[in-house]
User: Which sequence fits this backbone?
């Protein structure tokens, strides 16, 4: 199974062009259009979101992850193996949290290049073909550079990120904090307010911001039948505090 | 064939996460991303929309329908069979019109539970796995509760709904009225105007609201090369009148 | 492989309804949701965009292309063959540039009709079934009218279109000019400014509009970390000049 995780949005032809490459080069392998509105041009918050989503990936998953503001410049293309799952994309920290939370991990630099490589769309021209190689097991000998890949960004990032990663269309705010990392009795502080926990929307106080453990294990701030983004005046990138 | 009909929107990872479950648990069965912007948190109008779309479902279709403001609370999870098609989702009236318009129907309460059930995402954790069971025919003995399911919401809803169900991005307004339920000569009244019928955009009066039988059999209000929503000042949930 | 290229947007049930038809009538053939936000109701600019995207189509591709403001009126439904690829949709010029740039081409009028043909959704009722026939090779004898199809719109359109075809969510502006058609040293003029070329975002001057050859070979105007649409005050349909 191949997963697509990008900041391309679903507008335009970009996700479809990647899917066409995968359908041609990895026929019969399901391709999951997982999320195309990852934090735009922001590998760091995107890394926390991807790591949360990846906990549900099956063992043989290959993920094409593209949040790549440096496309066409010097950042290396990489494959990160994390407990058997393979992540293909830019070596800019996007896979740092996936790797850090795995028991076994390996990062390799992709040295293979396609016959035609556009300057701006490595997702289609480089990462999707490599994902197809990995998913089908048809891997050229020289796919990876022989030297170990070291010094990628992200080594100094925290284990959990006290930031808003994502706001959905209803105004719910996903953070980079794993719910399992804090006690249920711990309130959050953000937007000048103290935010208590509730198990679920239906048990929270009407019109009042609360936090809950969302379905991918992250702390999410919401307002029953309302918009937490509007109620708290928060946007993606804003900081939240604990306690 | 498995259909997905939700109010999740296509933003975020939610539809993709459901598709990953279905790809893993019902391999080889096509999954159709039918509509993810059903009336938000509103099972009643969504029920009329789903019933209109479902007239085109093939006989062996399984539909995961999730418009579920009560997720994580006491509403029962159900499977509704309607003329052989199976609908999996919350027992909140969402399948009322599908059932009412079928020659043969049966509603059963799902008592099976997955090993891990999030409080907020039964679409991924409960409904998608049950849909995969039904689509593959690999159904556990205790999937359903033995007692008949009765007393669900919706029994008192009308056969057609005189409301705007859906506004598309061009400002066309879909209603809950089946076109076959009224005479072609009947005008609508909404937004302070009388709205005549035309067969199609190209035959309607320029810049003037008209109604037509849309491609799923519902009455839809439009303006040639314009926005009916803007011209009439109507939004989803507003009432329309006949005659 | 079947490609879908429309101006339906991904809102509503429309793309899903077409995919359901293709899954039923062309089982096992991959369907690529290529682009659903083509220039709305505008076959001419859409034709330049489709021709650029189609250069990457595999040899056996079938494309359902629907930008069809005249649906339900007299424009003929057609299949255009261009170097072996088949394009199914309205005969309104949408496939003019695809045909013009091919070495071998043929245009035929579809005379086959389904049992039920809605007035407003030929994409689902006519074009998708015909695409399934072509993709599976199961073609009825009377699919096409015997007389040659001539006189379609588009014969007088230019080889490249000096217009903005598409603005993505980041404000990048795609034009109808192929990058290979002009020298790299040629600046553009649009929005009252002179716009130089850069190879890629990372090599352009910060906060300053530049043009580059985008990943489908068209000239695209962008601003590093900014919006070219906002910086230049340009929208889809605006004219650009060379030199």
Assistant:
């Amino acid at each position: 199974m191949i997963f697509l995780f990008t900041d391309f949005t679903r507008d335009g032809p970009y996700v479809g062009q990647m899917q066409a490459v995968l359908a041609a080069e990895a026929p019969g392998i399901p391709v999951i259009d997982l999320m195309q509105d990852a934090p735009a041009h922001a590998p760091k918050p995107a890394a926390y979101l991807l790591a949360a989503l990846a906990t549900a990936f099956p063992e043989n998953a290959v993920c094409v992850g593209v949040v790549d503001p440096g496309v066409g410049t010097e950042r290396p293309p990489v494959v990160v193996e994390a407990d058997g799952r393979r992540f293909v994309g830019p070596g800019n920290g996007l896979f740092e949290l996936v790797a850090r939370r795995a028991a076994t991990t390996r990062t390799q630099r992709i040295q293979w290049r396609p016959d035609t490589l556009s300057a701006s769309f490595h997702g289609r021209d480089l990462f999707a073909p490599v994902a197809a190689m990995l998913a089908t097991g048809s891997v050229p000998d020289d796919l990876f550079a022989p030297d170990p890949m070291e010094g990628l960004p992200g080594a100094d990032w925290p284990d959990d990120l006290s930031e808003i990663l994502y706001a959905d269309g209803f105004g719910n705010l996903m953070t980079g904090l794993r719910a399992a990392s804090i006690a249920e009795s711990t309130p959050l502080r953000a937007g000048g307010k103290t935010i208590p926990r509730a198990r679920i929307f239906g048990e929270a106080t009407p019109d009042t911001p609360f936090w809950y453990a969302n379905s991918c294990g992250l702390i999410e701030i919401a307002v029953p039948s309302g918009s937490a983004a509007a109620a708290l005046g928060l946007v993606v990138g804003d900081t939240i505090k604990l306690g």
Notes: Chain B has a mean pLDDT of 95. The two ends of chain B are 40 Å apart (CA to CA). The first strand of chain B starts at residue 2 and ends at 6. Chain B touches chain A through 26 residues (CB under 8 Å).
